Amino acid sequence: YFLNGRIIYAATAQEIIGKEAIFMILNLKEGNFRFILNRKPKSSNANFSTLEVLMEWTKALDEANGH
User: How far apart are CA 46 and CA 38, in angstroms?
Assistant: First the structure.
């Protein structure tokens, strides 16, 4: 879930949550995603700017690939 440009909740079908779920989702090559408007989670399990997460994920990919 996004709120004001920040990721405030992330989860996978395998019940992985938070930043680990965000990275798992970003690493998917294909899949089904749902974007639901005007609905909020009951609680928050993350609080990250989208840019912050994408930069950290890109850095992790580079390091994993020896760059």
Answer: 19
